[in-house]
Write a structure and sequence with these properties.
Layout (H helix, E strand, L loop, with lengths): L1 E16 L5 E16 L3 E5 L6 H8 L7 E6 L2 E2 L5 H7 L3 E4 L13 H11 L8 H11 L16 H13 L5 E5 L7 H18 L2 E6 L2 H4 L5 E6 L2 E7 H6 L4 H8 L40 H5 L5 E2 L5 E2 L22 H10 L22
Length: 368
């Protein structure tokens, strides 16, 4: 069942004005984006920095207003909600930001940070809020006794756990994860990803996972939408996309994923030139200036996002003509025997267990 439906979303930011204050130039950050998020599933929005992923996430939550398009949540048109109904909608949809320290008020304790949404939406009586804060901390793997501490007393991974707990405080149905692990050490990312996946299974959450790291997306997404310069160029089930990417841009992104097998045979696609500016996007296909398979039609006619019978949709004039993609991502993507032993040695370790006096409780996460 579709929990969130996004149709034809458009957002252009004013980049320059005339002496009379009239807009003369626009940055086309999002230009006709459509997708569906099912309840309890994860949709990943992937692409290079500046392609419009984070803008889409903010448009979905109406943190910024769209210029055109429609967003429906559980059948309701969010564009028609007044202030009171929009505030009630905030209970159902939350966001986790990239920087866990910048998103937390440094002058508030963890208890105050987690109590604020409870009081704002009047979810829990005052006498029970302390108990609810302790429950939220346990849910994300932190000791309740640290509720009196401030954000600066925690590591990056622990702060992100607090940010996750704050998002869970209002019992949402949808959480937008805007690059939630990109600011963390590699050894901590797997723990946060496993935590998000466990919470989804336990609470039935739906995620929009915004990331530029396809290696991360592979382990958490049910469906992937690839964005390039404000538009979606390919969307498919995660397994189908990684097994057989169809758009040249998707193939280039997948070919850049490091594979822990030095002798694995694969094709590396190196894009030539710089990413075009959203201020003056190219005519026709917006990827044609860097595409190795470009033809004259690509320069003049914008391709439509067309789906086949399996739900795999691609916006490319030459999809049927491209060579097979078997060597983009090797089928055997596992670790080499030496690395398997190394990974096994690190499994079972928990972030922060020996540093800063902060303990992680709950199930021990495993590396992905």
């Amino acid at each position: 069942m579709a929990l969130l439906e996004v149709e034809g979303l458009v957002k252009h930011f004013v980049a320059a004005r005339s002496v009379f204050g009239r807009p003369t130039a626009f940055i086309k950050a999002v230009d006709g984006v459509s997708f569906i998020v099912e309840a309890g599933k994860t949709l990943a929005l992937v692409g290079e920095s500046g392609c419009g992923k984070s803008t889409v996430s903010r448009l979905v939550l109406r943190l910024i207003e769209p210029d055109a398009g429609r967003v429906r949540f559980a059948g309701r048109d969010l564009g028609s909600l007044n202030a009171d109904k929009l505030r009630a909608f905030r209970r159902d949809a939350q966001i986790i930001f990239q920087d866990p320290y910048g998103s937390l008020n440094p002058r508030m304790t963890v208890s105050q940070i987690l109590t604020e949404p409870l009081a704002l939406h009047d979810l829990v009586p005052p006498q029970l809020r302390r108990w609810r804060v302790e429950e939220l901390l346990r849910l994300v793997g932190l000791e309740p006794r640290f509720a009196r501490r401030y954000p600066h007393e925690f590591s990056g991974g622990q702060r992100q756990r607090i940010a996750i707990a704050r998002a869970l405080a209002v019992e949402p149905k949808l959480i937008i994860c805007d690059e939630p692990v990109s600011a963390l050490d590699v050894s901590i990312r797997s723990q946060i990803l496993n935590l998000l996946r466990d919470l989804q299974n336990q609470l039935g959450l739906a995620y929009i996972f915004v990331s530029h790291d396809l290696a991360v997306v592979k382990h958490i997404a049910d469906r992937v939408a690839v964005m390039n310069l404000g538009t979606i160029v390919e969307t498919a089930e995660a397994q189908a996309l990684f097994a057989s990417p169809r758009h040249p841009y998707s193939r280039a992104l997948l070919s850049a994923i490091p594979v822990p097998k030095p002798r694995a045979k694969r094709s590396r696609i190196v894009l030539q030139g710089e990413m075009p500016s959203a201020l003056t996007p190219p005519s026709g296909c917006r990827f044609h200036t860097r595409c190795p398979y470009v033809i004259e039609r690509c320069r003049t006619e914008a391709p439509r996002l067309l789906a086949d019978g399996t739900g795999h949709a691609t916006a490319c004039h030459r999809t049927a003509e491209l060579p097979p993609a078997e060597t983009i991502v090797p089928a055997d993507g596992g670790f080499s025997p030496v690395l398997e032993k190394l990974v096994a040695a690190f499994k079972g370790g928990t972030e922060g267990a020996r540093g800063g006096g902060v303990d992680i409780v709950g199930t021990t996460p495993t590396a992905v």
